[in-house]
Amino acid sequence: MQAGTTLTLTWSSNGNMEAFILTSGQFDKSLNGQAVSVWAAHGQGQNGSISVYTQSTDSYFAVVRNMYPQASVMLFQAQMVER
Q1: Rounded mean pLDDT of 30-44?
Q2: Which of 24, 22, 8 has the alpha carbon at shortest distance from 65?
Q3: Is residue 82 part of a domain?
């Protein structure tokens, strides 16, 4: 992704979800089992939208996860768009 772009992630579900937009470094940390305490954007809720303005050229990843894994929550839709 080129610098100077706005990425927006939207989602809808039937329960509380947690959503992140992560840079490649942040995403790599999460894949290696490390806690990610800094992210490009974060939000939560049943339906939501988060955005980030890219200030550097990088890869960005959308992650939407169930906040309460023991609960049965269905993700209906998630989409990240570039503007």
Answers
A1: 88
A2: 22
A3: no
Q: Average pLDDT over the chain, rounded to whole?
A: 92
Q: Say whether 80 sits in a helix, a strand or coil.
A: strand
Name the DSSP letter for residue 2: -
CA gap 53, 4 in Å, rounded = 6
In a domain, 77, yes or no: no
Total domain count, the chain: 1
Over residues 43-66, mean pLDDT: 94
Residue 80 forms part of a structural domain: no
- Rounded to 5 degrees, φ, ψ at 69 are -55, -25
pLDDT band at 47 (very low <50, low <70, confident <90, very high): very high
- Whether residue 41 is contained in a domain is answered as yes
Secondary structure (H, E, C), 29-79: HHHCCCCCCCCCEEEEEEEEEEEEECCCCCCEEEEEEECCCCCCCCEEEEE
